[in-house]
User: Which sequence fits this backbone?
């Protein structure tokens, strides 16, 4: 069995400088720049905010065999609240981002790099103890067609109401038998 | 006159409910707001006013010729709302807040519209006391239930705060976790198991 061409590890506070240099925006689209800026400046503080430990925030970093940071992903548990008080437990995908050089590419054994990172994220969610609710959602800019396709490939096939005119919320569906 | 962020009240209520972690987080956000430029600007503008006029502003009566003050208050309201914890319900069933815009007036009543189809009627003298008795002005009603058939209702002056630009990141924007009744229906039932396409080991 061949060794994978990647390794994924949990982020730590010492990764601040590494993330500061991470780039993922390859156009002048404002929403792409916002993702990049968020990762560079705020993601570490989000992941290790001591006041937010209850939400179990998780930061994952993907590296190539040469040690290059190719992707960043993060998630945490949230409570979705309806105005009349209904509460639904879920996991919010905070961010999934690939460096431009790795976008739209596959590893030599055929796995799409984006699928590896997304699989790592979902595997991490499913391995949390205590178990997370399998409702997983992502907020994606409506022009981010690649991310929308990525979410759909990984089972985020339903859509909630929009939190904003420009953003969509994709979520995992209910089980067939439910 | 001493001005504090209303987030201190939120923090105190969280602490009273035993949620020390959330209380600490909100108190920290309050301290951050109070030490910020906008709060300093608000203090500066209020201290420049005659005391009776400053008291009127605090009571909700914003003079039309004080645009910088109104802008400062709106900016602070926006930032306060962003810092308010969206994952924590502070409104108990016994406490109801209805905030809306005055749509109609009669001699005795004002009609307050929260959203299309969501309307209530308020005695005009209550709206008067809150310095809100003109069509287009904003008013909030805070009701505390006393028992099954009675409540205390307070009319509170409100202002229109334009929605802040949405950010899908972080924990600051409640819209990221706010859902509707349609969403609740969509999310009801057992979720499908997660679809993991590629086995991946994560190093801790």
Assistant:
């Amino acid at each position: 069995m061949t060794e994978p061409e990647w390794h994924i590890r949990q982020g730590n506070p010492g990764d601040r400088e590494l993330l500061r240099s991470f780039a993922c925006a390859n156009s002048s689209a404002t929403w792409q720049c916002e993702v990049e800026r968020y990762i560079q400046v705020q993601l570490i503080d989000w992941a290790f905010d001591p006041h937010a430990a209850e939400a179990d925030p998780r930061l994952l970093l993907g590296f190539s065999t040469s040690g290059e940071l190719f992707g960043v992903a993060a998630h945490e548990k949230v409570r979705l609240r309806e105005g009349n008080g209904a509460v639904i437990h879920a996991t919010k995908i905070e961010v999934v981002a690939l460096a431009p050089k790795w976008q739209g590419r596959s590893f030599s054994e055929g796995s799409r790099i984006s699928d590896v990172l997304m699989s790592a994220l979902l595997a991490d969610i499913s391995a949390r103890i205590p178990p997370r609710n399998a409702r997983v959602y992502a907020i994606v800019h409506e022009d981010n067609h690649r991310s929308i396709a990525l979410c759909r490939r990984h089972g985020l096939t339903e859509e909630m109401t929009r939190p904003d005119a420009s953003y969509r919320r994709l979520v995992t569906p209910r089980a067939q038998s439910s | 006159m001493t001005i504090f962020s209303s987030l201190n009240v939120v923090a105190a209520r969280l602490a009273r409910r035993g949620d020390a972690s959330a209380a600490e987080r909100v108190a920290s956000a309050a301290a951050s707001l109070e030490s910020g430029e906008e709060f300093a600007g608000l203090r500066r503008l209020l201290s420049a006013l005659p005391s009776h006029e400053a008291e009127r502003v605090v009571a909700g009566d914003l003079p039309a010729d004080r645009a910088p003050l109104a802008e400062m208050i709106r900016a602070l309201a926006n930032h306060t709302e962003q810092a308010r914890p969206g994952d924590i319900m502070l409104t108990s069933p016994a406490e109801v807040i209805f905030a809306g815009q005055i749509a109609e007036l009669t001699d005795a009543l004002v009609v307050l519209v929260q959203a299309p189809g969501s309307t209530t009627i308020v005695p005009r003298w209550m709206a008067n006391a809150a310095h809100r008795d003109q069509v287009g002005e904003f008013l909030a009603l805070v009701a505390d239930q006393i028992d099954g058939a009675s409540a205390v209702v307070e009319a509170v002056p409100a202002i229109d705060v334009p929605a802040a630009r949405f950010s899908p990141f972080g924990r600051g924007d409640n819209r990221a976790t706010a859902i509707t009744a349609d969403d609740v229906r969509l999310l009801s039932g057992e979720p499908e198991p997660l679809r993991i396409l590629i086995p991946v080991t994560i190093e801790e």
